[in-house]
Amino acid sequence: MLLLSTHVLTKTTRRRFLGTLGSMGLVVAVAGCGSNQGPSALHPVARPTGVFAPGGSGDLSSTEVLASHTTDSTPTPVPPSPTPTPAPRTMKVWTARSDGPWLQAIRWASNAYHSSHPNVTIDVSGGHEDFGEIVESFGAGLGPDVIEPGNPVPLMTRGMVQPLEKYLHGSAVDPSNYFPAMWANGSWGGKTLGIPALDHGTELGLAWNTSLTATAHAPSSWDELFIFGRQLTQRDASGGLQMLGFDPLDGVGGILDTVRDVTGQEWFDPVTNRVSLDNPSYQAYLEKIVTYYSTIGIEQIVTFRKSNLPLTNRENSAMNMGRQVAILDGYWAVSDLARLGHNHAWQFGYAWVPSLPAGSQIQRLGGCILSIPSVAPLPDDAWRLIETLCSDATNRIMCDQVGTCVMTLSFLKSDAWRRYPGMQFYVDSVRQATRLTSRSNNVVSGFAQEKWVQAVGAVLAGKQSIGDALKAAQSAVQAAANRVQK
Asked: What is the reported pLDDT for 217?
């Protein structure tokens, strides 16, 4: 029996939600903001200019009072009462993602807050994605002032983060500066519980290395895309894969929301509480993937992946080494490929992911959310820090140093993102999309993603038929939805 992947449910940041299944379950990164960058493949970056550095202690300078002669009719000068120096304290920011460049960029962005609040030190730490550990920390009074947990739904549904409406009136954070589908990712039960920040934008695109192909035209249907992948796959004399044309489960291809978006078929109805994973559209989608993998050779793909990793965030990812031609991925892939590609002469194209009905142009918005824990001791201060981390100044730092940003209307009007020419497609796609979607932030979305991955893995491993695997997944998710409703 063929064993599934050496990579099992790898949790990450931008790609933690990006539940990627790198060929036959080779990689699964179920993400909130994105995927775990794993051991950082990003090069160390220089400190950006124009960023406030942490300064002095915040003590007031001494005031000299000049002596003067007085008479009975002249009141004696009274020295001004010194303004009390605020006690030094530390505000904590937790994020799911933990690679060095990401954390450093947030620290630099936080310096703007520190410059106006010199008595406050900002402590940024990553790796906070385990829900159980977050609950324990909140209960012990050790939680942060601001949190980006990757997947915000478990915190939102349990009342563990605070509603933010009271802060929005007159704030620098203006909902009208965000696309509605983006803003919706931070909402739950009619309340705003989180603000898109640090990494939040377009998640659907077909990226391909045009330097490795004879055409600069993107396939416009899944059938054309699979033909494209087969024709560009190259083998050595023994039949092993030298180059993989396309991997439909790499990047965002393994995400249930991607299946929803490209088929136009919802898998959950929040009104009726009904789950529909075992439907004709998903069956046909998965059947084509299985046929494609079988044609390429599942064992050959497993061997290929041992040294040619999925995603685009590491130097030895297949796309960066020129060992894979095409991938389904979001806007962040542009900066990954520009910085980590082994040949800087390579050219890349970016286009719509083929979707139904034919000719549809579908785009999804998603990414990181900043929230204030319900147990935060000073929520007003936490909100002011969030305002700093949601600013276009922070977006510029994140874009320059990490290659991510928040696609607010104001930031898109700037030229800051233009350093990565491939971003043009993703920026244009938001306005050109015939359907713009949010993530499936419902009570069973995380569990459904897990069951989808298991179903695909079982089919590719030959353990279950497509119908049986999807029936089992649907039954499990429906049972979970019923329990939550009760």
From this structure: 86
